Amino acid sequence: MASAFPKLPGFVPTQDIDKPNFRKVSSTKQEQNRDINHLPNKEYAVPRKQPIQIPPQTGMFNPDYMSTTHAMHLPKNVTNDSEELYQPSWVKMDRHVLRFSGYFKEAVVESALENYRIRKITICYYLEDHSLSITEPKQENSGVPQGAFLKRQKVLRADDSKTFILPQDFRINQDIIIYGKTIRLYDCDQYTREFYELQGIPQESSFVPQSDSFETKTMTKFIPQKDTVMKDYLEHKLGGGRVTSQKQFLENDRKVLKFYVFSDIEYILHYYLADDTIEIKEINSANSGRVPFPMMLRRQKLPRKFSLNQPGQTYAEDFIRPQDIQFGQPLIIYNRKFQINGCDQFTRSYYFEKFNVDFPLGGQEEYVQQERSNIIIPPHNGIGDEQDSLGYIYRLQPIPPKKDFFKWVDNQVNLRFLAMFNTTKPEDKDRVFVITFFLNDDSLLVYEPTVRNSGIPDGKFLEKRKYKNINNNNEFFTPNDLIVGNEAIINGWRFQLLDCDEFTKKWYAQNFK
């Protein structure tokens, strides 16, 4: 920002008050100030040297020599110990970096969660030119910009000595001030420790920095404790889940124990061995005067007691098992007594083999209503598909007949035949037809080609649909009924099959040998 004050001594507020004079700097002094940037840096003893990177030798005329970009044109297999004596310091210290971990406190205002934030940073000090860079690891939902905290540059000390920060200024468990930020160093890597041990000033041991409210409340990952019992309960409540033992399900799938019980009226109790669930069905009979209701108790696990524990705290032994159902003993189901009167033959065999108990047979069977049909199916009138017409007889709202999808996809083949009327009428005996049989749905299409000056309209003679063969017990036509030289009666018309195309001949040769 340009200042409105005149550029005169005593009128510029940003100048040093104790400055005695304002003489210009001589050219000699300026030249000395310029040369200070070219002074060689101090060389340090490093723990290990960086390997020499030899550039690729592809495209060179002589692969035994290194690239001409090197200062010395020496063969790559020959080493020269005197080379290190004349290397500059920035080459010897190249890629030697000291790495420190530190943190500083930053005040947070207008926040009920925290009063300050501990910001952890990583400091990289480059021995090549005594420059440093600072990066801050990114935290999720931190609310502050993180990443590159300070670009690589030389940093002056905070003691007004006008000298740059050197390696001896970095000490573990001590503070260092960089551009007004007081940073406490708490750790460094192994290479940095080895470097300071060679210099005779080993670093202190590392410590764990304190954590702030943001890290403890928001960054600490919550590891939930797995509650398999609660998970199984919720899955079964939503209609899913699995049985406790897959072996039990595989061995007892579709095995059901059937009991005849009595409580005011007769009921049937089903016990499913696959998952230890129970259901109770009412026995509905004709003219009983009762509203037919299919289930008295839906399929579920039956607890021994009417009251259970909290969800997820009820164990398998708290439910009724097959050994708890005994003949003559009442079964308490939600404070209602059911008297066991008998079972079926499978249940009796199961109890005898499993528990060596002779469970008596007996009980009232379910009433099976006899299906009486007074429907008289009229003969097909020839309009439309017969299967489609039957849908209006069996249902008030008909359902379209199902087609064989795989047959439809796999048999996209048509068989074509040449035919004539088998008649003595002079006007019809010369008429020629093309009969097409569709293998995907066993339908037929009869087409009459154009004959000029015949006086008979050409085009479709019989529409495409399934026709019955009266010579084969009124079964629908199949490829076996269409043989060249035979007669086929289609919808009352007698056709004499004369010939077929080449594809049809090959198809019959492959499928009817």
Automatic annotation (TrEMBL):
Annotated Basic and acidic residues bias: 31-40
A biological process term (GO) from this entry: cilium-dependent cell motility
Annotated compartments: Cell projection, Cilium; Cytoplasm, Cytoskeleton
GO molecular function: alpha-tubulin binding
Start and end residues of each DM10 domain: 94-200, 253-355, 411-512
Region described as Disordered: spans on this chain: 1-40
SMART domains given in the database record: DM10
InterPro entries, A to Z: DM10_dom (IPR006602), EFHC1/EFHC2/EFHB (IPR040193)
Keyword Lipid biosynthesis: no
Keywords, in A-Z order: Cell projection, Cytoplasm, Cytoskeleton, Repeat
CC terms in the record's Gene Ontology section: axoneme; mitotic spindle
Official protein name in the record: DM10 domain-containing protein
Classification lineage: Eukaryota, Sar, Alveolata, Ciliophora, Intramacronucleata
